[in-house]
Write a structure and sequence with these properties.
The two termini are about 40 Å apart. The chain folds into two domains: about 120 residues, Rossmann fold, CATH 3.40.50; about 100 residues, Arc Repressor Mutant, subunit A. Helix content is about 40%, strand content about 20%. Strand 7 and strand 8 form a beta hairpin. Helix 2 runs parallel beside helix 3, helix 6 packs across helix 7 and helix 6 crosses helix 8.
Length: about 230
């Protein structure tokens, strides 16, 4: 006997009640189970716990810009994202796509076009394999909340320190070159500014390499880069 296919899950992140109602109706007609969030923070949490198959995201959220939600989501998830916004400027569309959106649709929209675009981005997106939490030994990094802990205790990192740790964690066990770290954290214009890297890496080490951990979490590969080590 063939098992029935699992119901697709959609997450709608939009602060307009009327839009959420319209989207819920349209998506349920297409067979989706729909969850809603009215702020960026709520949306990020829902993405972790609901594990949606698709996300529909508005850019004009009350607590943060939708592009920031995209950036944070793409730190750990490859879930297809369709941006649905009143912003029609080309620059806004390019920015959203560059920050991880799979497609961009302007309001007002037609339900049939929305459904077709969702089918398209799901066809072209790889299966979701990322985990929202990384752990090695006593170190834990929750990408969805940007919370870092050692032995369960919070470690307070600056935005730059967290960005460095995230890149290292996402390449666990591999050597990440100086140039790659500089480009990922500071941008292409900083690829030759290795002094930034030495200073911030020292700060990061002091915060995550505690006396309780005999081995160094961040290994230096002289003249090449850094590697995050430790036991899983």
């Amino acid at each position: 006997m063939t098992e029935p296919a699992a119901q697709l899950v959609a997450l709608v992140i939009d602060d307009e009640v009327q839009i959420r109602r319209l989207l819920k109706l349209s998506l349920e007609t297409e067979g989706y189970l729909v969850f809603e969030a009215e702020t960026g923070q709520e949306g990020l949490r829902a993405a972790v716990y609901r594990r949606p198959d698709v996300i529909i995201l508005d850019l004009g959220l009350p607590d943060m810009d939708g592009t920031e939600v995209l950036k944070r989501l793409r730190e750990w998830s490859k879930t297809p994202v369709l941006v649905l916004s009143v912003r029609q400027e080309l620059e806004q569309k390019v920015t959203a796509l560059d920050n991880g959106a799979d497609d961009y649709l302007t309001k007002p929209f037609h339900a049939a076009e929305l459904a077709a675009r969702l089918r398209a981005i799901r066809r072209h997106s790889p299966p979701e394999t990322a985990d929202s939490v990384y752990q090695t030994g006593a170190l834990q990094v929750d990408y969805s909340t940007r919370r870092v802990t050692i032995h369960g205790r919070d470690v307070h990192l600056t935005a730059t320190e967290y960005a460095l740790l995230r890149v290292l964690a996402q390449n666990h066990g591999k050597v990440v070159t100086h140039r790659h770290l500089l480009r990922e954290v500071w941008g292409p214009q900083a690829e030759d500014q290795s002094q930034y890297l030495r200073v911030y890496m020292n700060h990061l080490r002091k915060k995550i390499e505690t006396a309780e951990d005999a081995s160094k979490l961040i290994q230096t590969e002289p003249g090449i880069g850094y590697r995050l080590s430790g036991s899983d």
